[in-house]
Specification:
single chain; alpha+beta; two-stranded antiparallel sheet; 6 helices; 8 strands; 38% helix; 28% strand; globular
Length: 151
């Protein structure tokens, strides 16, 4: 799989479907496989989408290390693993986002799709723009902390 990158702005229709960006679709799926993604809640007010292989890898690693006897582990399992649902692209290249996940991310109409290397984020556009503006100082601090990375 290629690294997923790009910022795309699309609209959610009245049935909760969003046109999935062609570039990302072409990177993720060949004609020989089902076009299915796992979608779950993020820890920010957005959704995370994974390929089935990436989801199996990530969720397996979490389940191997998370104990159901630990309160914080249970919270992560309930908030991240439990709400995950598989969604299949239709013939028109649209994803139908389950209502409970749309409500969590406050997805109404205008949305932002972000390719972030090995996963995808889906944001309500207004929420995303507000999130970026509110976190501008933290972004500068985080970028500064990466100063030791050399090219």
């Amino acid at each position: 799989m290629d690294f997923l990158t790009g910022e795309y702005r699309n609209t959610l229709d009245e049935k909760g479907r969003i046109l999935f960006p062609t570039k990302l679709r072409n990177q993720l799926f060949c004609d020989c496989q089902k076009s299915v993604l796992m979608v779950t809640k993020s820890f920010d007010p957005c959704l995370w989408l994974y390929t089935l292989d990436e989801w199996k890898n990530l969720s397996s690693r979490i389940m191997e290390t998370a104990s159901p006897f630990d309160r914080k582990n249970r919270l992560v399992l309930r908030s991240f693993i439990a709400p995950a649902q598989d969604v299949e692209l239709d013939k028109s290249g649209r994803l139908s986002i389950p209502q409970s996940l749309r409500e969590y991310a406050n997805l109404t109409k205008d949305c932002v799709v972000l390719g972030i290397n090995r996963y995808i984020e889906l944001w309500d556009a207004e929420t995303y723009d507000k999130f970026l503006a509110e976190n501008q100082k933290d972004l500068k601090d985080a970028a500064e902390a990466l100063g030791e990375i050399s090219f």
